[in-house]
Amino acid sequence: MIGGRRPLSGRKPGDKRIRVERVHSPYFRYTGRGQLTAKAAASAPTTSVGRVIQRTKLFLLGRPLANVEEIGERLSKKKALAIFSSDAISSSAYATEEIILAFLLAGVGSAAFSLSFEVSIAIAVLLGIVAFSYRQVCIAYPTGGGSYSVSKANLGRNASLIAASALLIDYTLTVAVSTSSAVEQIASAVPALDPVRVEIALVAIALITLGNLRGLREAGSIFAIPTYLFLGSAFLMIAIGVVRILFLGDTGPTPTPEVIAVTQQTATNVGILVLLRAFASGAVALTGVEAIATGVPAFQPPESRNAARTLMTMAVILGTLFIGITFLATNFHILPIEEPKQTVISQVARHVYGDTVGFYLFQAFTALLLFLAANTSYNAFPRLAAVLAEDGFFPRQFAFRGDRLAFSTGILLLGLVAGTVVVLGGGSTHALIPLYAVGVFIDFTIAQSGMIRHWLSTRDQGWRYRLSVNSVGAVLTGVIATVVISVKFTSGAWFVIVLIPTLVGAMLFIRRQYAEQAAELRVRDDLVFERPHREQRVVIPVNGINRSVVQAVMFGKSLATDPSLLQAVYVTTDLEEADRLRERWDRQLPGVPLVVVESPFRALVGPVVTYLDVLDLAWPPDKETPTTIVVLPEYVARRWWDRLLYNQTAKRLKAALVGREHTVIADVPYRPSSQHDS
Fold first, then answer.
1. Domains of the chain
2. Which stretch of DSSP H or E encloses residue 256?
3. Cα(3)–Cα(134) distance, rounded to whole angstroms?
4. Do 474 and 449 meet the contact criterion of CB atoms below 8 Å apart?
5. Predicted TM-score (pTM) of this structure
6. Which of the residue ranges 3-17, 226-240, 560-574 would you say has the lowest mean pLDDT?
7. Number of C-alpha atoms within 13 angstroms, CB side, residue 176?
């Protein structure tokens, strides 16, 4: 009843699962929950294929979630640490190796053992500064978006789009690099799998994509376990290794000829350029730090405080792991081995744990963490794409949440692009690393610069202290960005430098298209629409007289502003057949003229379009051209194979008419289950 809470009529007796109310409002409110939601979604399709697709979707993704359930999908600090920090934490598995490789490729391999540890400490200090700087972003911008939101508010549109482009590239490379590194860890333990490492990476990306389509909370439950297993086994490995080095004098496994040759060198020839190259290579350890600031809204309340605490916890964990693993690798005199692939961290683990179950478990945990590190991007990339879509720089569908309250379009796009990058890179981590750190430090610099402007303009409590933190962060990350670009330019960084302005141009183009569309659709506030602003002419293409055509004609009668502007069109190659149809038409559908269009070349779509053009040309030039409504009768097939037999001409006609000036297309579906008296 109106204004009450009694369910409206129309419900089957005894059916307590459906409740539709009208409560002090002119709107109907659907309050179904739980089983009903899934049941309604599953029963919605009317075709067998649609039902199969919907049931498969329900099986893979779970029941749809209502908007009010979004708060239940928020993350606790423990789950958020696993989801948003797995990327940064997992970089400890390959950052040390990149530092050592930089010294080896520069021809000063001895420095790999004498200077790598010092380089890792310098990077850890930078990590602390960047993390502390981004802590201010979490507090100042609780709506998320990270550097994009900061730069948009303080530095203008172009700077914000550069930051967004750099982030999107970084998130994509995170998935590719993490999965490639995970496969290398697997190949280090099981060399026989090395030939199929690309296939393994693609399967992992597909599974992570599916897990994120199911929703944040379920993804957190799935991904938290491997993250904490890796942390436990890694800290245990570091503790055992440090004890052996400091108290037992362990110097590592039996040296290979390569190791002996390196240790006999001296580090006196190490120049500043080599140190900068090693620093830039190891700086990949900082990738993923900004993800927490981007995904602040995913945290449980209070969002800002929980995000800031999680960020600092992540920085401490990553710094400890990175320094510890580098300390073990340099003291054990371990070098990366390419044939067969043996990563630095796998050799450290094998030396500490021996060729035991402990070693294989550690490799499994490391591979799982690296696979799941990609999940950081799966949470940050879609959220950033949604923010860009809301601002008009991305297609609007990226802002829509799927059945599980996840930004499904962004998740699917990320999985597709990252899989392509893995294939192009051949599943090699080292091949992708030069692309990796460029966008990260560009983004860091823009974000910290934006925060400087923020504190100068707001002058909130404690702004001087916060300003100094972000100023130091901006200067350091700006210098590192310059170093990374210069030393990595010829190794592939040039591609990122070209890609960023390309993405900015594409986003500006999308924004301009939306702006032009909005201008075309704008309605002045002073206009009042009480009748159609122009006359409406109704044209109904028919193939004879049947229930579908009759239904379309009856519908067309209700649309025509003037009965004389209603007509059916029949295209034929046989005029005698057309005469027989006209005789029957005039008897059964009086008042609706039937125009016969002869098509000697057996075309169907072209004659209809040409006839519409003739009608427009014949319209009096002193009158406004009417809106032409083309009413298409369509038979709704029951089975998927029936759809191959029906409506093909209607589809071609719709494709030909889309975009035609002053033309509207109206589909009138006829369902076989309907009962008609005609």
1. 67-512 (1.20.1740.10), 536-670 (3.40.50)
2. none
3. 51
4. yes
5. 0.68
6. 3-17
7. 28
